[in-house]
Amino acid sequence: MTEPQIELEHEFSLDIDYNPSRWLELPPRWDTEEWQDIGAWAHSCAELFWRSYGQDPGTTGISFLAGRLRQFAEAFAPEPFDTRVLLRMWEPTSMPLQVCAMVKPAEGDREETLRFLVGADDSDAVEPPVVESFQTELLGEGLRAFRYLRQDDTPEVLAALRYAWRVEEVGADVVLWTATDDTAQVIRAAPDIEELTDTMSVAVWELAPEDEDAPPNVGS
Q1: What integer is the mean pLDDT of 12-20?
Q2: Percent of the chain that is helix, strand, coil (3-state, to 5)
Q3: Which domain holds residue 133?
């Protein structure tokens, strides 16, 4: 799979006001307190999700979902400070969809950078990507691209959806993406991902030389 690689820095963080009835955030790897017992985290989330779903999980429902959540956490939980990963949850027995977002200092020409971040000119795409401009409430105008990719050297095709913004006020680039071999799942999640993009904003961390715990200056 050909996906743009992004060098991360720790000058910004992302604020995402997501709906907890639809989205579950993965704990970050750098938070060692969370990762000391990731199994307990997965089991607790599975219990809560089944309870909110309002149906009997039976004897295996909770353990099955907990195992699936742990697999997603081990595969996708973020390491860097400026990356967040959410799972779009549906029925407890349905496969979640991971949606990743990150922020980095802005670099280069806006149009060229945004096209790179969404893979708009990806020569390895199965067919030319569908690229569109779109507007969000807090991050402003961005670029969106949908494309099909071959995964490594296998015949499997992935559906990839990417969004990118240049937030000029704070000098940051933001990218959000998902990719899966289940195209129907991406289509099903698309309206919720669009809604999610309207809740995203950038927090700028201005640390004082002698006070590294200074609060962030939030921009959008």
Answers
A1: 92
A2: 25, 35, 40
A3: 8-25+81-210
